[in-house]
């Protein structure tokens, strides 16, 4: 099928761009030209990944890849959009795009939790292992929590002038961890012994989550010593 082949090709190319360019943005000076360009290309690569994933999922239904696709794209979307609302007090607040994205993400998170819970309770018949049902609940909870946090902050923005920096780091890096997860699921997962496939779904988060926390903590200490850094560009 020509359309499916085109979607696969676009998906692979976008995935390569995302996986390669994100480390460039991480390694270069924050606010510098290379950082901004790398981040911008990463975001659009993730957008293409998301759209092509939806197209492929229509042909090859896969709940788990749907979950990780939504989770990774919402992280990139919200992390990129926050740069447009760094100073809500100066009328740089959330727009309909931010509100709409958060509500869709919240609905998706609730849906993933419901799916995982129903399969665990055998209300929804499925041949998937129990571990994968827990993954549906876990990732759905994470997505819903992020979306709800955003909806809350739209109404009452944080007082910390540096909040957007930490938010940007957390969401963009979290998105990258989710993208790496999807990559490993496709490449490493099939090679694992039967019954251990689910481990590849949590391995990137177990490694990446603490590292993100340490990196954000580093900047919080740095900013507390130099308060004016909150005015820097990202």
Main sheet overview: none
Give Rg in angstroms. Answer: 18 Å
Order of helices and strands: HHHHHHH
Number of DSSP-assigned strands: 0
Class per helix and strand makeup: mainly alpha
Q: Note the beta-strand portion.
A: under 5%
Task: Enumerate the spans where pLDDT stays under 50 for 5 or more consecutive residues.
Answer: 229-234
Shape category: globular
Account of the protein in words:
This protein has 234 residues and is mostly helical. Helices cover 75% and strands 0% of the residues. It has helices at 2-27, 33-59, 63-81, 96-120, 130-155, 163-187, 199-225. The model is unreliable at 229-234 (pLDDT under 50).
Summarize the structure.
The protein is an all-alpha fold and 234 residues long.
What key attributes describe this structure?
234 residues, disordered C terminus, mainly alpha, 7 helices, single chain
Strand and helix layout:
Layout: H1 2-27, H2 33-59, H3 63-81, H4 96-120, H5 130-155, H6 163-187, H7 199-225
